[in-house]
Amino acid sequence: MAFEAGSDLAISVYNTLTRRKEPFVPVHPGRVGMYVCGPTVYKPSHVGHMVGPVIFDTVKRFLSWAGYQVKFVVNITDIDDKLIVEAVKQNSTVPIVAERVTADYMDCLKALGVRGIDLFPKATDHIPEILSMIESLIAKGHAYPSAGDVYFDVASDGDYGKLCNRDPEQMEAGARIEISDRKKNPGDFALWKGAKPGEPSWPSPWGPGRPGWHIECSAMSLKWLGAPIDIHGGGLDLQFPHHENELAQSESYLGHAFTKYWMHNGLMKTGDKKMSKSEGNEVVVSLLLKRHKSEAIRYLLLSSHYRSPIEFSEARLEEVGRTLEGFHRFFELFARISGKSFFYLETPKHREAKRLDPALAPEGLLRDIMTLSARLFESLADDFNTGGAIGALHEMLTRLNRFVAETRLEENRDQASLDPLIAGATLLRECGLLLGLFEEETVKESGTGLTDGLMKLLIELRAESRKTKNFAMADQIRKGLTDLNITLEDRPGGTIWRQS
Ligand SMILES: [Zn+2]
To answer: How far is the CA of 119 from the centre of ligand 1 (A)?
Structure first.
């Protein structure tokens, strides 16, 4: 690499802990550890569950491009009250329900282009780490066993409440605090829960039981990332009590800082209501993917600032779908003019300031595109403002289309105009990839699932014919399709088709 890792780009991040935007300086130069709270796997993912993964996947894409090595961990809570209730309801077991729902979560992440997560630790795989942390908290006087449970003693932590900037009484008033005669203070929370008959349990010094939710995240994040973690993320609804408690128990255990930057993403809402299972207005991702392209869902999640609520509606998704069609029309136009696929344009993996300096480009299309891309990078460097970045991406598209129209490139294929067009499109691709957009060519929408199905069948028949050396049949299929203005293109990953 021609530059030092992550050293020449000023990135700022809003830190919930300090309530201000701060320069981003990771604990270890060039390396970033990022932990984001994952799902409790008891019901299929709704689109609100995808907000955090898509946002933080984009954060990782940008930080990696800026030159950092990023390790991104998302936990899976595979033991919890809700899971136990759901397993009973389904006449199944907790591991079976958890495994099925985890598989659905993974499918959703894949569909939405969330590729950056390096590790998905499961709570039930970390019982020894959790037990040793609880034992240490008891030994240090921060926790106490009580009738088979173990509680964190909130009063033992002098700065409890610092993440939410509230004192313990205010927090108790604002949250659903479980009242129990086993606790010293109502705000104390369970690190270990004694098992009721028939519940899944693990042996412990306090009797059989299972971990509380908060301690899982502390144990797993410390194990896989070490402390202090650079970025700890999650939805705004996790700030209290989950993150406040995670912070309290982790710092009491460590004796020093747990997380440098706390980031909280806004929640998805429909109308004026938060999208949640308790509101009954959640939209299941697997069903949504039957009606909309996955790219449109990702685009929608990135189109506002991550700290603001995200407005969800079918109408907005349809509108986004039309916007994306505009991009794909340009990609087709670009392929016709240049003979190159937009999706195969080679982009540099890392930022190099010199390469991206508009002042170094000749006046005209390329300088304009470089100026717009600089705006996109600046938006992302300013507290990961994806909404601003998407605005710049749009303007790049408009400028490229205007250039093609003005130069009449489609008719004259003038090389002097073609070169800046290719350079501009390459930069558009680099910017799109930073946001996880336009990663792969999507098969041209024909408007019906039937056409897609028939095309898939023909492509399979042709592949089969070639395998059995029936080349006449394979050629006949290709020729027949060419007559219908459909072109087949054999790619390393399979055959795609386009209609001209
Ligand atoms: Zn968590």
So the answer is: 14
Instruction: Give me ligand 1 centre to Cα 77, in Å.
Output: 9
Q: How far is the CA of 214 from the centre of ligand 1 (A)?
A: 6
pLDDT surpassing 80 at residue 407: yes
Does the structure show a pLDDT above 50 at 120? yes
What contacts 156, CB < 8 A, 6 or more positions away?
141, 142, 252
CA of 277 to the centre of ligand 1 (A): 18
Ligand 1 centroid to Cα of residue 243, in Å, is 7
What number does CATH give the domain 344-434?
A: 1.20.120
Task: Select from 147, 159, 251, 264 the least CA-distant residue to 206.
Answer: 147
Q: pLDDT per residue over 440-467, tens digit each?
A: 876 544 445 677 778 888 998 998 998 8
Same topology between domain 12-301 and domain 344-434? no
How many whole angstroms from 217 Cα to the centroid of ligand 1?
A: 5
- Non-local (6+) Cβ contacts of 176 within 8 A are none
Question: What kind of fold does domain 12-301 have according to CATH?
Answer: Rossmann fold (3.40.50)
**Å from CA of 385 to ligand 1 middle:** 24
What is the structure's pLDDT at 41?
97
pLDDT at 303: 94
Q: What is the 190 CA–ligand 1 centroid distance (Å)?
A: 14
CA of 198 to the centre of ligand 1 (A): 26
The contacts found for 488-491 with CB under 8 angstroms, 24 or more apart, are 488/459, 488/462
Summarize the confidence of residues 189-200 as an average pLDDT. Answer: 94
Residue extents of the structural domains in the chain: 12-301, 344-434, 449-499
Sign, CA torsion 206/210/212/214: positive
CA of 142 to the centre of ligand 1 (A): 20
pLDDT tens digits along 295-309: 999 999 999 999 999
pLDDT at position 480 over 80: yes
For residues 324-336, give the mean pLDDT: 95
Instruction: State the distance from the centre of ligand 1 to the C-alpha of 38, rounded, in angstroms.
Output: 7
CA distances from residue 478 to 454, 487, 499 in whole angstroms, order as listed: 14, 8, 13
Identify the pLDDT of residue 418: 95
Record the tokens describing residue 346, joined without a space. 């080679």
